[in-house]
Amino acid sequence: MMPEMIIFDYGKTLFKEGEFVRKKGIKAVIEKAVRNPMNIDSDTIEEFAKELDAEIGRFDPQNKENFNLEVHNHSFMNYLYEYFGLEFDLSVPELEEIFWNNVCEVSPTENVNELMEYLYKKGIRTGVISNISISGAALKKRIDNGIKHHFEFIIASSEYVFRKPSKRLFELALRKAGSSADKVWYCGDNPYFDMKGANDSGLYPIWYTYNKKDENLSFENLPFEHLHICNWNELIEYIEKMTDKK
C-alpha cells in the first residue's frame, strides 16, 4: 500500500555524522565561561560526564534495552557545569548550540533533498522522530538549515520523555499525523531503535544504511518484513514501481 506519510530518523538517516567527540564540545563550552573558579579543563569534565552517563545508564550498548527514558541535554548541562562552579553569560540553549556544533561534522545524506522534493510532489507527507538528548529547538534548527523539507513535525525524544523503540513516540507521531500505523512508513538506520520500534508499533520499516561497512551495524536478516536501502534513489524507485502497479 502506498504510504500516506513517511517518518524519518535524524542521525545517520537525514544527516551523515562524523565521529562524536564530546570533549571538543565541552572544550568549546568552557572557553565561554566567565568564571571557572576551579580552573577545570575539558578532560576532567568529560570524565565526570562519563561517570554520570554510567549512573544514568545511557550510551551503554549492553544496557540499551533498559534505557527507555530520555535525559534532556539542558538538565544534563546544568548539573555538569554547575557542579564545577562554571558560570556563563550565555543561555543554556546558546551553550548547547556551541557544544553541538563542535562535537562532530554533519552533512545531509546523499540525495535526501531530491527525496524530500519527490515525496512532496507525490503528496506523501513527512515527519521526524529522533532519539536525541539535544533540545527539539536545536534539532529543528539544524534540520531546517541543512535540508529542504516539508516536515509536519519534528519529534525529539528529549522533549517527550520516551526513547525509541518505545511505542510512545511512534504513537505520538501518529496522533500528530491523524493517521493509522498501517498507512505510515518509518525510515531509520538502527535495527533495534528504528526498525524494531517501527515494526512493533505497526509502521512499515525502511532500513536505510548509507555505509555498509559501518561496524556498529548488524546486517543479519531482520525477523520481520522491511525494505533495506542504501541510497534514497532506491526508495524513490520503490515508490515509482508501486505507482506503476496501480
As a percent range, the share of strand residues is 15-25%
Number of domains: 2
CATH class of the largest domain: Alpha Beta
Q: Structural class of the secondary elements?
A: alpha/beta
In oligomeric terms, what are we looking at?
Answer: single chain
Account of the 3D structure:
By secondary structure, the protein is of the alpha/beta class. The chain has 2 domains: 152 residues, HAD superfamily/HAD-like (Rossmann fold, 3-Layer(aba) Sandwich), CATH 3.40.50.1000; 82 residues. Helix content is 42%, strand content 16%. It has 9 helices and 10 strands. Strands 7-6-1-8-9-10 form a 6-stranded parallel sheet, sandwiched between helices. Strands 2-5 form a two-stranded antiparallel ribbon. A two-stranded antiparallel ribbon has the order 3-4. Helix 6 links the parallel strand 6 and strand 7. Helix 1 crosses helix 2, helix 1 packs across helix 4 and helix 5 runs parallel beside helix 9. It is elongated. The termini are close together. The model has no long low-confidence stretch (mean pLDDT 93).
